């Protein structure tokens, strides 16, 4: 059985949206023994995604994804993410990929930066840093997002009004609200 000290061990994890420039990223602290499904929930909350699409982790040669009731087209190398713990597949300095929304293909580069002791006895994830706004869902991936940002900055573009309406009049691609993001992440029951 794991000692009480082991239960308070955390990983500090950097989640970066691949292809973003300037880099869209979040730094989260999570219990090192959370499941990959729970890590998926943390990533969704940290980036303010809606969890409306399929996802998978690629760690080494294996893929980890949710087990679907109706079955999947996954091959034998795909493992149910609900039964795999993060510290069982990744140690500090490990890097792997989280893919969200197979249509828009949002690839996130994940790095386990370090292990640390929890400041609290509660098993709680936290967002401790980050930069830049996350793209909206269903905007066509990273290239579609940057096309939208260009249009939103050009009042002469014929799609300007529609794009500003979709993004919101006050959308700022450089904005990141750490307090609101940490609230979303720390609310998770993990």
Entry summary:
With 190 residues, this protein is α+β, with helices and mostly antiparallel strands. It has helices at residues 4-7, 36-47, 86-89, 141-152, 160-167, 178-186; strands at residues 9-17, 25-31, 55-59, 62-65, 78-80, 95-100, 106-117, 126-131.
User: What share of residues are in beta strands?
Assistant: 25-35%
Classify the helix fraction into a percent range. 25-40%
Helix/strand-derived category reads alpha+beta
Number of domains: 2
Mean pLDDT reading: 91
Overview of this protein structure:
With 190 residues, the protein is α+β, with helices and mostly antiparallel strands. It has 2 domains: 4-133 and 174-186, Roll (Structural Genomics Hypothetical 15.5 Kd Protein In mrcA-pckA Intergenic Region, Chain A), CATH 3.10.290.30; 135-173, no CATH class. Helices cover 26% and strands 27% of the residues. It has 6 helices and 8 strands; from the N terminus they run H-E-E-H-E-E-E-H-E-E-E-H-H-H. The chain has helices at residues 4-7, 36-47, 86-89, 141-152, 160-167, 178-186; strands spanning 9-17, 25-31, 55-59, 62-65, 78-80, 95-100, 106-117, 126-131. Strands 5-4-3-6-7-1-2-8 form an 8-stranded mixed β-sheet. Strand 1 (9-17) and strand 2 (25-31) form a beta hairpin. Helix 2 (36-47) runs antiparallel to helix 6 and helix 4 (141-152) crosses helix 5 (160-167). The longest helix has 12 residues, at 36-47. It starts with a helix and ends with a helix. 27% of the residues are buried.
């Amino acid at each position: 059985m794991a000692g009480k000290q082991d239960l308070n061990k955390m990983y500090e994890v950097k989640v970066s949206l691949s292809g973003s420039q300037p880099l869209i990223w979040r730094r989260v602290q999570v219990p090192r023994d959370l499941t990959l499904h729970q890590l998926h929930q943390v990533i969704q909350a940290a980036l303010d995604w809606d969890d409306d699409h399929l996802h998978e982790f690629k760690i080494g040669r294996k893929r980890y994804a949710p087990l679907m009731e109706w079955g999947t087209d996954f091959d034998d190398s795909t493992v149910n993410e609900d039964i795999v713990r993060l510290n069982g597949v990744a140690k500090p300095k490990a890097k792997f990929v989280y893919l969200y929304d197979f249509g828009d293909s949002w690839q996130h580069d994940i790095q386990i930066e370090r292990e640390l002791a929890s400041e609290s006895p509660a098993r709680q994830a936290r967002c401790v840093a980050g930069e830049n706004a996350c793209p909206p869902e269903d905007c066509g991936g990273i290239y579609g997002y940057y096309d939208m940002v260009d249009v939103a900055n050009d009042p002469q573009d014929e799609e300007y009004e529609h794009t500003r309406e979709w993004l919101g009049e006050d959308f700022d691609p450089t904005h990141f609200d750490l307090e609101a993001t940490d609230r979303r992440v720390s609310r998770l029951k993990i």
